[in-house]
Amino acid sequence: MLFRSSAAICGALVALVISVPAARSEIVAVHSLAVVAAASGEAIVGAASTYNPFKPGWREGGPNTASGERYDPSVWAAAIKTSLRQKFGGVLYGARAKFALVEAVGKKVIVKINDVGPLTPGRIIDLNERTMRYFDPSLQRGVIKGVKVMPLLGDYWIPGPVG
């Protein structure tokens, strides 16, 4: 009986140890003050929408981003308006990714800017699906107005929510 109890406790501990790192990697938060201090230049304010070139009927682009990476709906990434390309360090094929702080609806997130595009007029950024779901979990809004986007200095940010 003691052996069964020990085995059950050991099994529960193994399950806990395995599940904690997975949960922790989902909720990586960066200290707000450090992010705000690294934001360079003035914030760009406008509307944000979402995109996924793999959805049927998508009219622009393809599966590869301007940086050469394949579009991935599960990472924290976005496409910036073509005219803002230089403000974000170029976003060039094969170059190191650029990062931005995106603020909307009382939330902040660091995104990797790995694509550019001729966005719909009035929009400054197209968020991939994961990032848009952070701001709009049901994806019912389609467009979020009053979004602030600030380029971040440096190349080694961890994309995700800012706590």
From TrEMBL:
Keyword match Protease: no
Keyword terms: Signal
InterPro entries (alphabetical): RlpA-like_DPBB (IPR009009), RlpA-like_sf (IPR036908)
Signal peptide coordinates: 1-22
Domain RlpA-like protein double-psi beta-barrel: start-end pairs: 46-145
Protein name: RlpA-like protein double-psi beta-barrel domain-containing protein
Naturally occurring in which organism (per UniProt): Bradyrhizobium jicamae
